[in-house]
Amino acid sequence: MTITITAFERSPDGGKGLARDTRVRWALEEVGQPYEVRLVPHQAMKEPAHLSVHPFGQIPTYEEGDLTLFETGSIVFHLAQRHPGLLPKDANARARAVTWMFAALSTVEPPILDLSIAKFQEGDKPWAQDRLPVVQDRIRQKLTLLSARLGDAEWLDGDFSAGDLLMVSVLLRVKPSGLLNEFPKLAAYVARGEARPAYQRAFAAQLAINTAPLPAG
Amino acid sequence: MTITITAFERSPDGGKGLARDTRVRWALEEVGQPYEVRLVPHQAMKEPAHLSVHPFGQIPTYEEGDLTLFETGSIVFHLAQRHPGLLPKDANARARAVTWMFAALSTVEPPILDLSIAKFQEGDKPWAQDRLPVVQDRIRQKLTLLSARLGDAEWLDGDFSAGDLLMVSVLLRVKPSGLLNEFPKLAAYVARGEARPAYQRAFAAQLAINTAPLPAG
C-alpha cells in the first residue's frame, strides 16, 4: 500500500528541515519505506479538506490504505512498531524508548516551541525583548537535565531509537538560537543524528521541495 | 509484580487533581491494576535519587519489577498496551487512539501549559497582564478545532480510550480559567470523563493524600 504524507508547499523555514514532515521522512528512511508527498499550500491548512485529515490543520499527516493518522509522534510510533529499526525488541527497552518519544514531544519541545512563539508570534509585542531571556532560561533548565542524563552515551538508551529520532529533531529547532551549543554533549548528540544517512536523505528531500519553483497559478 | 508510582508529597494545586499522577492513577483504575504511591517532597524533586528515576525531576514515574518509566504519556500507553480497556483491538483504531494521546500532550496541552506559566512563573512580570489575552487566544484556537472535530460524539474516536483519558486530563487544566466553558461540547466531554468511576477513584486517592496531615519533621 502506498504511504502518502503531507508537507508544506513552502515551509516557513525555507527548507532548514525544521518543519515536522522532516521527522516523518526521517523515520520512513530509517525503516526503508518509500512514500509519496502531497503538498498543502499555506492557505489550505485550515480548510475543510485538510481539516478532515488533520483536525488541527497542521502537517504532517500519514495515509496508508484506509488508515489516516496525524501527530508526528503517532506516525513515527506507527512506523517504528511495524518495521524493524526504530524500537528495540525487548519489551522493557521498547517501553523506555517510547518514554523518550513522549519526553521529546511533551517535556523538551514545549519550552523550545515557546521560543519560536516568542520570536515569530509575539516578536512585535512590547514585552518581546524583555521576555526572551525568561523563555531561554526555561529551555536551559531542560537541556541541563537532558545533557546530564545523556552524559557521554551515544544515544539516550542503548541503540538509536524513535526516541532519539524525535529528541534530535526537537533539539534541531533550538540550534539556530545558539542555545544548543551551550551544551556540547547535546550538540554532539544532534550532530550524530544529522550524520545518519536516513536523516541526510530526509533533509535533502524536504530541501528539494522547498527550493523548487512553485507551481504557476 | 507491585506497581509503584510517584506523586507530589503536596501537589501545588492542593488536591484539585491537576498534577499528572492523577492521569496515571486514572489509567490504573480503568485497567483495574492496584498500585502503591511513593510521595516525593518538593525539595527532593531535583535531587540525584529522584533524577535517577525521572531525568527531568518531575512526577509521576512508574516502577514495576526492573522496569522504570517516566512521562505520563508513556506510562498510560504502557498500561493500555498491557491490559484491556484503554485501546481498541483493531490495529487501525488503535493507531488512531495513540494519535489522540499524542495530540493531547503535544498539540493541545502546550498552549494550556503556557497559561499556567503565564500565571504562576511570569505572574509578577511587567508584561503579565497584557500578555494573558494572547495566551488565552492560542488556547481558544486549539479548542475551537478540537470542538469541531469532536462534534456531538461521546468520545474522540469510537469507545473511550487512552486518547480520551489524556485529552480530558489536559482539558481539566483549563477548566479553572473559565475558558473550557466557552466550548459547551468540550465541557460536556470533560464532564463525561470526570463521571467515570475510575476517574472518581483516582481523584479521591490524590485528594486524600493532598489533604492528609504532613509527616512530622
Automatic annotation (TrEMBL), chains A, B:
Signal peptide: none annotated. It holds the Pfam family GST_N. InterPro entries: Glutathione-S-Trfase_C-like (IPR010987), Glutathione-S-Trfase_C_sf (IPR036282), Glutathione_S-Trfase (IPR040079), Glutathione_S-Trfase_N (IPR004045), Thioredoxin-like_sf (IPR036249). Residues 8-87 form the GST N-terminal domain. Residues 90-213 form the GST C-terminal domain. Keywords: Transferase. One of its GO terms (molecular function) is transferase activity. It comes from the Bacteria. PROSITE patterns: GST_CTER, GST_NTER. This is Glutathione S-transferase.
